[in-house]
Design goal:
Blueprint lengths: L7 H9 L9 E2 L2 H5 L13 E6 L7 E5 L3 H10 L7 E5 L6 E10 L2 E7 L5 H7 L2 E4 H11 L2 H13 L3 E8 L11 E8 L1
Antiparallel strand pairs: 1-4, 2-3, 2-4, 5-6, 5-8, 6-7, 8-9
């Protein structure tokens, strides 16, 4: 078993390091983003980014053209946002979303809060939130996640007991690891 994830700041540093498996390419600071080997800050070949927050429940800024991230970051800081609370990820192919939510092990097996709406997760769950437990939750997860993603989810559930795992599953493989259709957005102690 791994050390529990007790704070969002701790989670983000471990997420960027790849501890939780397939994830969106992510940078911890604006400087890291601008100095990336493939320069998303200087071209829009990679599409869009989102500026995320290390503060629980903090604002996330979606669908920012990568070429505009530096400007948006500096504007947020100018308006009083602490830059150490922010980090940057590439936008996932949201239009390809087929299944997303949060899963954890409960007393009677898996407990799943999910949606099939193809929007960023916060917005999608506002439009549609479904619940499943036990064998139904397990069947849904097994149905939508590719074998690699399903195996990794099982590993996360085994190695992070009493944690919730947020994920998005796409109709295409996407993320930092090849041959995965699921990105694991967050692992947090509950």
């Amino acid at each position: 078993m791994h050390k529990p994830v007790l704070t969002k700041t701790n989670f983000v540093s471990r997420y960027i390091a790849g501890e939780f498996g397939n994830h969106s390419p992510t940078w911890g600071t604006l400087d890291e983003f601008l100095q990336a080997k493939y320069p998303p800050g200087r071209s829009n070949k990679l599409g869009q980014c989102h500026i995320r927050n290390r503060v629980v429940g903090g604002a996330t800024y979606y669908n920012i053209p990568c070429i505009e991230v530096e400007h948006r970051w500096k504007k947020l800081v100018k308006h009083g946002v602490d830059p150490t609370s922010l980090y940057i990820s590439l936008m996932a192919p949201t239009e390809e979303t087929i299944f997303q939510g949060e899963v954890m092990r409960g007393l009677w097996g898996l407990e799943l809060t999910y949606t099939t709406v193809a929007l960023p997760m916060r917005d999608a769950l506002l439009k549609e939130t479904k619940l499943a437990k036990g064998i139904i939750a397990s069947s849904l997860v097994k149905h939508f996640l590719c074998d690699n993603s399903f195996a990794w989810l099982q590993d996360l559930l085994d190695n992070y007991p009493n944690h919730a795992i947020e994920f998005s599953t796409y109709g295409v493989n996407w993320g930092t690891l090849p041959a995965y259709n699921t990105v694991f957005w967050e692992v947090r102690f509950y």
